Fold this sequence. Notes:
Layout: H1 9-18, H2 22-28, H3 44-53
Amino acid sequence: xxxxxxxxxxxxxxxxxxxxxxxxxxxxxxxxxxxxxxxxxxxxxxxxxxxxxxxxxxxxxxxxxxxxxxxxxxxxxxxxx
Length: 81
């Protein structure tokens, strides 16, 4: 979910100065996501809360789903921050 975390302003500058579209930015840069922890869906909110309790910036950024053979391997939803 592209709107799930605050995108650091440096990525706006990189995109503007490099004349890159959103798809290229997402392909090349992490756009502010430093690390992703994959956890069971029913534990996600607890994990986010615990990380935030430790002073970390944590956001639920998406979910893993089974895809059909003809679907793209990665889908983005929402705005780019």
